[in-house]
Amino acid sequence: MKIIHCADLHLDSKMTANLTKEKAKIRKAELLNTFINMVRFASENDVKVIIIAGDLYDTKNISVTAKNTVLDEMVKHAEIDFYYLRGNHDSESLLEGVQIPKNLKLFGENWISYVANHESGIQQRGSEIVITGIELTSENHNSIYDTLNLNPAQFNIVVLHGQESLHKAENDTWRISIRELKNKGIDYLALGHVHEYKKGTIDSRGMYCYPGCLEGRGFDECGEHGFVLLDIDEERKSFTTQLIPMAYRSLYTVEVDISDCMSTSDISDRIGNCLDGASYDKKSLLKIVLTGDTDIECEKNIELLQKEYEDDYFFLKVCDESGFKVDYEEFQFDESLKGEFVRNVMSENAITEEDKAKIIRYGIQLLMGEKEL
Questions:
Q1: Which helix or strand (DSSP H or E) is residue 29 part of?
Q2: DSSP result, 134-145
Q3: Calpha distance 323→206 (Å, rounded)
Q4: For residue 196, which of 167, 166, 171, 217 has the smallest C-alpha distance?
Q5: Angle subtended at Cα 333 by Cα 331 and Cα 334, rounded to the nearest 5 degrees
Q6: What are the DSSP E strand ranges found in 112-174?
Q7: Contact criterion met (CB below 8 Å) for 103 and 121
Q8: Across residues 110-114, what is the average pLDDT?
Q9: Checking DSSP bridges between strand 155-161 and strand 175-177, what pairing results, if any?
Q10: Which pLDDT band, with edges at 50, 70 and 90, does 119 fall under?
Q11: What does the angle CA 180 – CA 214 – CA 21 come to, to the nearest 5 degrees?
Q12: Looking at the predicted structure, is the pLDDT value of residue 121 above 60?
């Protein structure tokens, strides 16, 4: 049997942290469309089950479009069972005032188990695939380990939403102890909450996995995104997993060392070389991070650099995290106003070395007429 494990779709995200209202609207629609594409993939590839391990939506106030799109896809694809476990961003508003589709299976504050559909439609004793899940609350998060009872003769998928850890945390609702889940008969622990693909071992029998989010929304979610496809052999109790890329756009953070650059033109050439060498898709979202230490007399115009490259991608921003290197001995006997300024700044013991470099840089730029007060 083929099963999709996805999580952290965060549909209806505002997407306005970096984007204009117009582009944020485009990205919101793309997130919904990626969900549709995932369901279409399932239908075209004989996937019987889609597990949504939490944070299907981003806020409690769900738009009519987002709610209807998800429910309509479930209704249209009655051949697929959807197992939906709410995460810390989800609420009951998805289900308010609607008729629950027969193929939508829900979880609650106590462990609930379902036998997944077989291709033959016949449940075979001892070879069932059982999907078990519980939604974490402040009341149950410490007791879930003692109340989980699985049949080791079955293939057991357990669904949870939270941060994996070695130990329990008394006051952390969303902490999941992998150690406490050892030797419970788990074959595959389908997790949500972490926004990047990650997997690990529970014990000699089972593994845990985060599929990450379907689409990256910010520059803390760079890299490849999609869902995990499980292909399970019920008779042999074996399975394979594969991350299936699905995101329409990718986000990248690109570090550019500008240590030996002396002008905006030099920096622009360095950025261009980095971008050309990587061949990023024009649909991508990029954050260019300038690094290294430049000479204090380096002419650097971030706004101009931004303008030069921003039209080449769906979104691009330039962030200056470079420092300054100051050869203080060069100014020790300089009798100019610039030399006097540098010596005065250096004599201030209350100012940190980092701040001194910044003050000197901006002061010299003012003296050279590059900046206005």
A1: helix 21-44
A2: ----TTTTTTHH
A3: 48
A4: 217
A5: 60
A6: 112-115, 129-133, 155-161, 163-165
A7: no
A8: 97
A9: unpaired
A10: very low
A11: 130
A12: no
Q: Are 35 and 70 in contact (CB under 8 A)?
A: yes
CA distance 284 to 250: 5
As separate numbers, helices (DSSP H) first and strands (DSSP E) second, the chain gives: 7, 19
User: What's the length of the chain?
Assistant: 373
User: What is the C-alpha separation between 36 and 80, in angstroms, rounded?
Assistant: 13
C-alpha distances out from residue 353 to 262, 297, 326, 348, Å: 22, 17, 10, 10
Is 232 or 124 the better-scoring residue by pLDDT?
Answer: 232
Q: Kindly report the number of other CB atoms within 10 A of residue 83's CB atom.
A: 25
* The one-letter amino acid at 262: M
Task: Give the residue extent of every domain in the chain.
Answer: 2-245, 251-367
Q: 2-245: what fold?
A: Purple Acid Phosphatase; chain A, domain 2 (3.60.21)
Residue listed under structure tokens 């039209």: 311
Q: Is the pLDDT of residue 63 over 70?
A: yes
Q: How far apart are the first and last CA of the chain?
A: 68
The amino acid that residue 359 corresponds to is: I
Q: How far apart are CA 186 and CA 239, in angstroms?
A: 13
Which residue has 């559909």 as its token pair?
117
Which amino acid would we find at residue 7? A
Cβ neighbours around 176 below 10 Å, total: 23
**pLDDT one-digit tens code per residue, 150-195:** 999 999 999 999 999 987 777 788 999 999 999 999 999 999 999 9
Task: Give the Cα separation of 110 and 95 in Å (integer).
Answer: 19
Bridge partners, 115 (sequence order) = 130
CA distance 192 to 212: 7
> Hey, what are 369's tokens?
């007429």
Helix, coil or strand: residue 50: strand
